[in-house]
Design goal:
The protein is an alpha/beta fold. Helix content is about 40%, strand content about 15%. It has three domains: about 5-125, Rossmann fold, CATH 3.40.50; about 145-205 and about 275-380, no CATH class; about 225-265, no CATH class.
């Protein structure tokens, strides 16, 4: 009988009660190696490569994560940041440090157990790229050779065939409006990896600064619940009882109930897309409807940042909202130029898709993608390139 643990978790946590709670929640076939400080944890990591998941307390992740992500042996290992509450600053810092997810300690034991089990399972499916130089290498999805072969062959051929169109497009963009020809967008792809995605510029310069003023025009936006629309920062239960909220959080210089804060997060749309977007240039609408603006992404595919077929890489402000147990699965698939949700819902005549439907289709692709599925999506994409919706 083999008594070797199936998994190993590195836990960096000073609090003995929290550490004991984690030890009780992990699977029975999992060993937990716990340290009180980052220095000792880093020393242990330097002497081993056998770790499947890292859980680090909120005050220590900024010190530990650079060491983890800059080493090829651990780049693929999921890192969960344990915290007592969520706020925009923490989420942004965790994404910047390339943490995998945030583990909220106020959740019940079952939810925390599910999160840990999900990431132990996810780690089986993710491999780091073998180092080819002394520089840190990027972690990419363990893509099958057939898929990478298709990506290289198709992107090279398409770039050669599309080069006249791309040259003319570049000229027209320069004549149409002031600004660069190409737009470089920071995106979050497979395994929460940051990539620079290229497009022909279709918007006016500094268009990103207008997003906060256009939330009501987002086609994915949900109607706020009655509780969120109420200016009172207490939850319904506390207002009925006439007491100060028993679950307070500090948000943007004021106290707010944790239930109200969570309701606001739930009501926020996970994706952003606008009809008749005023930020788009005169030429931009044509480039978007014809998908010509996507052609520079063929270079992303050729260089391996993306695949021809996969889940669309997301801007950080969208990716930071998709860290729940289920939604995170979409990042277990390759980032792609076109994908399942585009041909099933966004295709000509299908109308808008909700963010829940889009997440479900992304997860479906990540779980089931195959050569047959990719060929189907490529074939359907050819017939849905021109979109009716002005989005």
């Amino acid at each position: 009988m083999n008594d070797t643990p199936a998994f190993c978790i590195l836990l960096v946590e000073k609090d003995n009660l929290i550490a004991g709670r984690f030890s009780a929640l992990v699977p029975s076939d999992t060993s937990v190696v716990r340290f009180n400080n980052v220095k000792d944890a880093g020393r242990w990591l330097s002497n081993t490569k056998e770790v499947d998941l890292i859980i680090v307390e909120e005050n220590a992740f900024n010190v530990l994560l650079p060491k983890v992500r800059n080493n090829p042996s651990w780049q693929h290992v999921p890192v969960l940041v344990a915290c007592f509450s969520l706020n925009k600053q923490l989420i942004a810092a965790a994404i910047k440090a390339r943490a995998t997810d945030l583990l909220v300690l106020t959740e019940n034991d079952q939810d925390i157990r599910i999160t840990i089990n999900n990431y132990l399972d996810l780690n089986k499916r993710v491999l780091s790229v073998p180092p080819v130089s002394k520089k840190p290498v990027s972690v990419v999805f363990s893509m099958p050779l057939w898929k990478r072969g298709i990506d290289v062959a198709v992107s090279l051929t398409a770039l050669l065939l599309a080069s006249p169109v791309m040259i003319l497009t570049a000229l027209f963009i320069k004549l149409d409006s002031k600004g660069p020809i190409l737009y470089k967008s920071l995106r979050i792809g497979a395994n929460y990896k940051e990539i620079s995605m290229y497009k022909f510029r279709t918007m006016k310069v500094q268009a990103d600064q207008l997003i906060s003023q256009m939330s009501d025009q987002n086609i994915y936006a949900k109607k706020p619940t009655a509780e969120v629309m109420d200016e009172d920062t207490r939850c319904t239960d506390c207002k009925l009882k006439g007491v100060v909220c028993q679950q307070p959080l500090f948000d943007q210089d004021k106290t707010i109930c944790e239930k109200v804060y969570q309701a606001k997060l739930d009501d926020n749309a996970k994706f952003m897309k606008f009809r008749n977007d005023p930020r788009i240039t005169r030429l931009g609408g044509f480039l978007r409807n014809s998908s010509i603006d996507e052609l520079p992404q063929l270079f992303n595919i050729l260089f391996g940042d993306m695949s021809l077929v996969g889940n669309r890489p997301l801007p950080p402000y969208e990716a930071e909202q998709l860290t729940t147990n289920l939604a995170a699965e979409r990042f277990a698939g390759p980032a792609g130029l076109t994908g399942l949700w585009q041909v099933k819902k966004r295709a000509k005549g299908k109308g808008p898709v909700s963010d829940e439907e889009r997440i479900a289709l992304d997860i479906e692709y990540a779980r089931t993608f195959s050569f047959k599925t990719d060929m189907y999506i490529i074939w359907k994409t050819i017939f849905s390139v021109w979109q009716k919706e002005n989005v």
